[in-house]
Design a protein that fits this description.
Elements: H1 12-23, E1 35-40, E2 50-53, E3 60-64, E4 70-74, E5 79-82, E6 95-100, E7 108-112, E8 121-125, E9 133-136, E10 154-156, E11 164-167, E12 173-176, E13 184-185, E14 205-210, E15 216-217, E16 220-221, E17 224-228, E18 236-239, E19 247-248, E20 257-263, E21 269-274, E22 285-291, E23 294-297, E24 306-312, E25 320-325, E26 334-337, E27 345-346, E28 352-353, E29 377-379, E30 387-390, E31 395-398, E32 411-414, E33 424-428, E34 437-441, E35 446-449, E36 458-459, E37 465-474, E38 477-487, E39 501-504, E40 512-513, E41 539-541, E42 548-550, E43 556-558, E44 566-567, E45 578-579, E46 587-590, E47 597-600, E48 608-610, E49 632-634, E50 642-646, E51 649-653, E52 661-663, E53 668-677, E54 684-692, E55 695-701, E56 709-710, E57 722-727, E58 735-739, E59 744-749
Parallel strand pairs: 28-32
Antiparallel strand pairs: 1-59, 2-3, 3-4, 4-5, 6-7, 7-8, 8-9, 10-11, 11-12, 12-13, 14-17, 15-16, 17-18, 18-19, 20-21, 21-22, 22-23, 24-25, 25-26, 26-27, 29-30, 30-31, 31-32, 33-34, 34-35, 35-36, 37-38, 38-39, 39-40, 41-42, 42-43, 43-44, 45-46, 46-47, 47-48, 49-50, 50-51, 51-52, 53-54, 54-55, ...
Length: 750
């Protein structure tokens, strides 16, 4: 089968139209400024711990992310729809488990909660996740904790859909008999849970699986299985009387955790086991098959690592697939058996991947990786050739996995249309050039975006960073761009020399390592949280693009693109300058500890202290986290015009920091950016992440912070996991929003 014919997620024009219709929406509430919000397309990008196909309707599937909410696959639109963009509760974006009703395609349940310190709830939808009924629960979850690939923890009785079970992390087995509205503990279940830990987490109970073919009592399915991931004691229990009594079952060494379980139409149960709950730290594993009282070890070859992902073929009994976990050498794989696990075929060696729709998956290498962290693995119950597995960066799907049964290689494509599940650290929008947006991500480096609707082909490489923490451009020469970040795991290989500073002279199209200053005898301040200030330093470029400063413990300046570095004189160790956006000679810096103000008028070579009045005491507000946007801003196109974002209010200086005035009214500003000027106005529009009372949202001001309009609405909350923003200086009203889990969004007036 040709790759050109099997990419069922393509048909981009139809997808774009559907997305525009669904994701746009007037933000009229409280604003008077209607806005449409859409995703900046990257395509996947993050960890998807679970994929579940509906058994009630062909073409219906759900995916759960660890920090970006749940998604539903819409076969008619050929896209994944985000299902929780309207939630204002941050913790609910960590989805612990998802369970579509086995018989009613409109009903789906989800267990949500980011971690043991966050809020937790059970969600029920009667319209495929378009709207949710929320039941808060006292037992904690860990949608973004270790063990998030176990499962599925939540299960609906196939014959009595008002009965649900939930395998909790800390509080034993929970049950609802009213469709998820209320929950109670199953007192007869032997493992009661270990309670919420002070730190780290528990695997707890890992999965619930019903045998739909077993007898019924009062309508309820009698046989069900529950896996245990906590150490010590049995790993697997079976009930033959609808959960009233439980029998421990045989399995591997009790050091192992039961990871995932699935029952095929014959009533045969398969279980993957792991030594460690993942997604990292799994060092061994096993696969077992259970039929009646018989337990059998059917583990594939395992030179290292363990097993987690599991799928059973519901049309061809005896066919089962499992995924390795943390098999770093020669790399993870998916194993397939058509004879109940007596023999296995590894798919990795003969698999081909076409990632042309999501080119960042090349990572600058000749071929994309097969994948890692493969916890999600699912076989379509209506089309056994259609199989999907998720990695730490994408979902791969194939339309005919049975090719491997015929001795051929399987062919895979990214199945991520509509999924934007990434943590975004920084954004920059340039005033000119081919790229309206430059983005810095966690884990996947960053991108120069030519088209917001297409997955970018220009990933930041030479060098590739793991995280891109900062992007700055020269105010008067925006073709000069610098970035800083943290090292990629591939340091030492081609393109990965360990540099964490880079520059571009063509608006971000191509990049060059900037090198780094050599460490000196000055010790790193104890209160810095940076990993290594010589590999993790902030970077600044002068307005004329001639000089670049690295904020190492002793700040250094280069005038020759990193070939040589000179010590910056007169700047306190903990001060971090910003460059004036017009005057290439001028830099400004605040010593947060003392409140002293420093200015350079010689390209940053030397700083002198100057008188400054009006700022409050900011000693407790000095940023130290490498991913935190800096609060001091220089306004594009206006020499000496500065703004300071503080927890005590928003401050502005019109005279290069000599005098500061509090502005901004009642709005508490957290992040600030400057966009295009409104018609008839003389000053750039301001955009911010801010808080008005209990409402955290996105706001715009067209009158220099005299008044603010909220420009997002209750349909576009994104769990309020906002990290930073960048206004577009070329398109009035457009703003880019970086989230922690839902990628990059952009809003425009409608």
């Amino acid at each position: 089968m040709s790759l050109e014919l099997n990419r069922r997620q393509f048909g981009l024009a139809a997808v774009a139209a559907a997305l525009a219709t669904r994701l746009s929406g007037d933000s009229a509430a409280e604003t008077g400024a209607p806005y449409a919000w859409r995703s900046v397309k990257v395509g996947g990008g993050g960890f998807i711990p679970g994929i579940v196909f509906s058994t009630a309707e062909r073409g219906l599937a759900y995916a759960r992310s660890d920090m970006g909410g749940a998604y539903r696959w819409d076969a008619s639109a050929q896209t994944w729809w985000p299902l929780q963009d309207d939630t204002p509760i941050s913790s609910y974006f960590g989805v612990e488990s998802i369970a579509p009703d086995p018989n009613n395609p409109d009903v789906v349940h989800a267990a949500v909660g980011m971690g043991s310190r966050g809020e937790a709830a059970m969600l029920r939808s009667d319209d495929r996740g378009e709207t949710w009924r929320t039941t808060t629960v006292p037992f904690k979850m860990g949608g973004n904790e270790d063990g998030r690939g176990l499962g599925e923890r939540l299960a609906v009785d196939p014959h009595a859909p008002d009965i649900l079970y939930f395998a909790s992390r800390h509080d034993g087995l929970r049950r609802s008999v009213d469709g998820g509205a209320t929950w109670s503990g199953v007192k007869s279940f032997p493992h009661k849970g270990l309670g919420v830990p002070e730190k780290d987490t528990h695997g707890g109970l890992s999965f619930v699986a019903f045998d739909a073919g077993s007898a019924r009592v009062g309508g309820a399915t009698t046989r069900l299985y529950v896996g245990v991931a906590d150490p010590g004691g049995p790993r697997l229990y079976r009930s033959d009387d609808a959960g009233e009594n439980w029998t421990a079952m045989d399995g591997p060494d009790e050091r192992f955790s039961a990871a995932q379980g699935a029952v095929d139409p014959r009533g045969v149960l398969f279980v993957t086991y792991s030594l460690g709950i993942g997604p990292n730290g799994v060092s061994d594993g096993a696969v077992w098959r259970y039929e009646g009282e018989e337990a059998q070890d059917v583990t594939p070859p395992r030179p290292m690592g363990g097993f987690m992902g599991l799928g059973v073929d519901r049309q061809n009994t005896g066919t089962v697939m499992v995924a390795s976990m943390n098999r770093w050498q020669p790399g993870d794989t998916v194993w397939r058996s058509t004879d109940d696990g007596r023999s296995w075929t590894s798919l990795r060696e003969s698999a081909a991947r076409d990632v042309s729709s999501v080119p960042f998956l090349y990572w600058g290498n000749p071929e994309p990786e097969f994948g890692w962290w493969i916890a999600a693995l699912a076989i379509d119950p209506f089309d056994p050739g259609h199989v999907a597995y998720a990695t730490g960066a994408t979902i791969y799907a194939t339309d005919d996995v049975t090719m491997v049964d015929r001795g051929e290689g399987t062919q895979w494509y990214p199945w991520v249309e509509g999924i934007e599940q990434t943590a975004v650290i920084t954004l920059t929008s340039l005033p000119e050039g081919p790229f309206p947006l430059l983005t810095g991500f966690g884990d996947i480096s960053g991108f120069s975006h030519e088209d917001l609707t297409v997955s970018p082909s220009l990933q930041f490489t030479t060098p590739v960073f793991a995280n891109t923490n900062q992007i700055e451009f020269a105010g008067g020469a925006p073709n000069v761009v610098v970035r800083s970040g943290t090292p990629h795991e591939g340091v030492g290989s081609e393109g990965h020399d360990g540099s964490t500073l880079a520059f571009s002279e063509d608006y971000g199209r191509s990049w060059h390592p900037l090198g780094r200053p050599e460490p000196d005898a000055v010790p790193v301040p104890a209160d810095h949280s940076r990993m290594d200030l010589y590999r993790d330093a902030a970077v600044i470029v002068s307005a004329d693009g001639e000089n670049i400063m690295a904020l190492t413990p002793t700040p250094r300046l280069t005038r020759d693109r990193g070939r040589s570095w000179a010590e910056v004189r007169g700047l306190p160790t903990k001060a971090r300058p910003v460059a004036d956006r017009v005057n290439g000679q001028a830099f400004y810096a605040l010593d947060f500890d003392t409140g002293d103000w420093f200015v350079s008028q010689d390209h940053g070579a030397t700083f002198r202290q100057e008188t400054s009045r009006g700022l409050p005491n900011l000693a407790d507000e000095r940023p130290v986290w490498r991913e935190e946007p800096f609060p001091l801003h220089a306004v594009p196109g206006r020499e000496g015009d500065l703004w300071m974002v503080t927890r005590q209010g928003l401050y502005r200086s019109r005279d290069a920091g000599k005098r500061w005035d509090r502005v901004g009214g009642e709005l508490s500003v957290e992040r600030l950016s400057f966009g295009a000027t409104a018609e008839g106005a003389a000053y750039p529009s301001l955009f911010c992440i801010g808080r008005r009372g209990d409402l955290r949202g996105i706001f715009r001001s067209d009158d220099e912070a005299g008044s603010w309009l909220r420009i997002n609405d209750d349909r576009h909350e994104y769990a309020r996991r906002y990290r930073t923003i960048a206004a577009d200086p070329r398109v009035f009203g457009r703003v880019y929003l970086a989230t922690d889990g839902r990628g990059v969004l952009y809003g425009e007036p409608t």
